[in-house]
Amino acid sequence: MRSLMPMSALALASSLLVSCTTRPAVSPVSPQEPPETVIAPIQAPEEAPAERPLKVAELTPYFSSGPLARALKAYHEGENDLAATIFDAYTLQRASNEAPVLSARFLALLAHSDAGRTAEAAEGLDALASQWPLLADYASLFAGAAHLKTEGYEAAVRSLERVPEDSTIRGRAIATHARALVKLKRFEAARDLLETDLRRDDGQLSHWNLLAEVHDGLDSAGARHAALREVASRYPHRSEGRAARAALGSKPGFSREQRLRIARVYHDRHEHKQAVKALKATLELTTEGDDLWCQGKIMLGRTLEKMKKRAEAWPHFEDALRCEGDALASATFLGGRNRLRAEKFQAAESLLAHHLEAFSDRTTADDAALMRASAARRSGHEKLADERLLEQLERWPRGDMADAATWALLWPRISAESWKEAIEVADTALRLVPRERSYRAEGRTSYWRAVALHETGDQEAAVAGWRSVMKAYPLSWYALMAYQRLDRLGLASDALKTIVTETQTPPDPLERVPESMAASVRFQKGVALARMGLMKNARREFARLKVSDEPEERRASTWTLIALYDQVGAHDSATGLARAEEPWFGQSWPVGHMKRLWELAHPRAYAEHVEPWAKTREINPYWIWAIMREESSFNPTIESWANATGLMQIILPTAKGLVRGTKIPPTKASLRKPAIAVELGSKLLAQLIKEHPSLPLASTGYNAGSGATRSWRRRFGHLELDRLVEHITYKEARGYAKRVSRSVARYSWLYGRGEGAAEDGAQGPFVVWAPSLDPPDPR
């Protein structure tokens, strides 16, 4: 067959291919007669001999530079003719059966299919399915899809029947298979196929939509409407769900369970008005006290609270107190919290006490205990509050509220400057909870205990306390504050040098890929897909990977995935996994092999945009990366429930102000582009640091708005930074200041002059970046 590629693609590809290989170049392309698209035969890959243990550093991308990188980029951007031309030429000049060649062939066939050359692509993919067993299921799926496009329905069925039941893409194959059967008018077979797979996983939109179409072909109106109701109730926010709802007419016939499901979808998506409307409609069809009524009441109360309608929410929680089981647990907990926020302390006390008595085994028990103590303190019963907090620490020392309970005991003493009492409370708390777990609290108790010791004149003990924070909680917010405290005494550099040089590092989890992992076919598939740039499919394989329960093996498996994701540029996936590992790697200073782990958790993603804009804006590039890491985890397309979009999580009203003087349209599509996100986000950061010349405070402006930061500076700007940050009234902004600051310190250590390395290679002073303790607005 003749190539259908436009001449511009062929000309560009020809020029790129000059550097694609050292083998003889392909024949020049004639502008009068485009070359035929040749689908090269591939021999079955030879079995690899036994090798040494696999290292993740060896699993680099196949197409990371030169013409092949351009081809991959072209494929992802829809320039399929160019991608197919380059990948074809690469495979035609190599008789090898190595994975890079097979991968290039696979991508070439996908590009041909997407460019409309589906019949030839389908044939090639069928051949590849038999020639490359590792990815036979993927080749078969795409072959079936290509056959379907060319109306080769029987061939599509044959291809898709090869996808095994345990394949990660089984659901997609079933959907495509069913479409082919529908085209063949084999409706019963399509129905059986879909219904069988829905019993395995009932959350597949494509299956429910197809099932409605199948029942239409079977003239089964009732079954068709049942399938449409599933689509409309499971996906009311999507175009398919809205179309299904319209097809059902004015009397859709939803069951009560389906109506509640619709409400839950809107509730979970923070679409509050739709959730309230759906919940009220559901409650009208329920009987007071039954399970659906109880669920609806709780959900309606929670939705109204999210809408800041606390008074309207309370009657629904109160109604739910007539329920039992989970609903009663929620009613006592959420109702108690509602009454506490409304300053109805007696009612809050009663509900929370009930929750603790009846549901002490639930994860909310320590939350309820903390709120009970808060109710006591806010109603003037200080001693009772302290007793309850101590009881909580004794009962749940490893609970997720232990850090907050400790702080609720300690902060009143610090804010009142009752230093001796603060030391006593800190000692008691540290005996019960020796180590904090939350990023907001890493080293907090020990740090403020040291401040209290300093204030009482025990300088030696204070210095020892600050050193212990730096040692136990490397580069945490409180380690930075401790460093600054020691720096005032001229002791910081020597203390840091001693701590770092004495650091004991745990075994390196990246020493090798665990044997059980390397032997897993699912891991091998994920690796092959990741290395060829098909990340969505790779993530699906890794998500279903079975990992050992043995701690060191599990840790090695996790870090293998983190490193692999990082190597192929999937920084959002790498960072997401690394966050869960922070309680472990965060205990060791980033030196030796541990530095590599810290770097994986703090990548310099999108450096081609960050570094130039940081220079232009005259701001710290590590601050941009820190904001990016905390806001989006380097996912350029993410959108929050509050409609913040992209790497820097900018909302449209803010974007409209930032684009002034540029030709950038203030749209979500623009904000999803890394270049634009960094340009606009860095502009906002430059404005904030100019107004608030303290990085932690400027960061709160990014999170809560510059107006809120101005208010905190007016009220607390005369305080030293450590105490000022503790006074920030928004919990989220308070934590954000700490989190961003510690990320900046980490980036500075990892990529600046960490470990005391001077620019000339000589041993320099041991320093970390840390914000100044000096009051930003002294009076």
Number of helices: 42
> Largest sheet, if any?
none
Task: Tell me the span between the first and last alpha carbons.
Answer: 82 Å
* Proportion of beta-strand residues: under 5%
Oligomerization category of the chains in this entry: single chain
Number of strands: 0
Helix content: 55-70%
Can you tell me the CATH superfamily of the domain at 37-248? Tetratricopeptide repeat domain
Mean pLDDT: 91
What is the CATH fold-level name of the domain at 37-248? Serine Threonine Protein Phosphatase 5, Tetratricopeptide repeat
Give the CA-based shape. globular
> From the 3D coordinates, which CATH architecture of the domain at 37-248 would you assign?
Alpha Horseshoe
- The residue ranges in which pLDDT falls below 50 over 5 or more consecutive positions are 1-50, 755-764
Overall CATH class of the domain at 37-248: Mainly Alpha
Radius of gyration: 30 Å
Overview in brief:
By secondary structure, the chain is mostly helical. It is 65% helix and 0% strand.
Q: Can you characterise this structure?
A:
The chain has 779 residues and is an all-alpha fold. Among the domains are: 37-248, Tetratricopeptide repeat domain (Serine Threonine Protein Phosphatase 5, Tetratricopeptide repeat, Alpha Horseshoe), CATH 1.25.40.10; 515-587, no CATH class; 607-756, Lysozyme. Helices cover 65% and strands 0% of the residues. It contains 42 helices and no strands. Helix 14 packs antiparallel against helix 15. The N and C termini lie far apart (82 Å).
